[in-house]
Amino acid sequence: MVFRRVRDGTASRPETGRVLGVDWGVKETATTTSDAHDLRHPGHGRKAQTKLTRYDRMMARRRPKKGRPASTGYREAKRLRAKAHKKVARQREDTGRKWAKKVVRDHDAIAVEDFRPRFLAKGTMARKAADAAIGATKAALIEMGRKHGRDIRLVHPAHTTMDCAHCDARAKHRLPLGERIYTCTACGNTSPRDKNSAHVMLVRAGLNPAGADGARPPGALLQEAA
Ligand SMILES: [Zn+2]
Asked: Where is the Probable transposase IS891/IS1136/IS1341 domain positioned along the sequence (predicted)?
């Protein structure tokens, strides 16, 4: 299955006639088919990460020997670390909720990359922070969509960075991460890589960016483009 629908609640917001595609990323937490709804990765993650690293080191230095009770210093470092961690989580959720509210207010149907963090255990600090931000933002969007009866469609992420949103051709090779522009060898379409992916989400979910009701199947769009 290409996408799955999040169960609709009762519509509590007026219809907008607009649909949105959402692609998740590291620098931009969300790149969407509408420039006004893109979400940059909020800076508070980084500052807090620096703090967390500092407390981690403090804890490592003060770690009690086996069988010995933890020192006051160790417990204090642990307390500070937990506090800093909680603060970031709260900020993250707050940012996610604010964004989700705006997205849900402005769109009837939203096609979302069904992102599953795979690098949470390993990966760089930036990657971990990005994964956590995406996780919180996606959860907020699903919750907000449900609450207001919006049509949220989770799109399987396979090949979404390789497909052309314009003609549906699939690139033969994965784009290198540094390559920010998607160029289609089949139709010549070039667009910013993440914007292309956001459009692919729409097509995959069966939503037509040009359609007012957002209910036309992807085939209709593809035939028109051909
Ligand atoms: Zn193309």
From this structure: 12-115
Distance 186 CA to ligand 1 centre (A): 5
- Give me the number of domains the chain comprises: 1
User: Residue 187 C-alpha to ligand 1 middle, in angstroms?
Assistant: 4
Q: How far is the CA of 122 from the centre of ligand 1 (A)?
A: 35
pLDDT of 98 strictly over 50: yes
Residues 6 or more apart from 34 whose CB is under 8 A from it? 18, 20, 106
Q: Measure 162 CA to ligand 1 centroid, in angstroms.
A: 10
Distance 166 CA to ligand 1 centre (A): 5
Whether residue 140 is contained in a domain is answered as yes
Q: Average pLDDT in the 159-185 region?
A: 85
Q: How far apart are CA 175 and CA 139, in angstroms?
A: 28
User: Ligand 1 centre from 190 Cα, in Å?
Assistant: 8
Listed ranges 18-22, 122-126, 220-224; the one with the highest mean pLDDT: 18-22
The candidate with the shortest Cα–Cα distance to 74, out of 65, 91, 62, is 62
Q: How long, in residues, is the chain?
A: 226
- Give the chain's count of helices (H) and strands (E): 5, 8
In a domain, 48, yes or no: no
Residue 92 covered by a domain: no
Q: Is 218 part of a structural domain of the chain?
A: yes
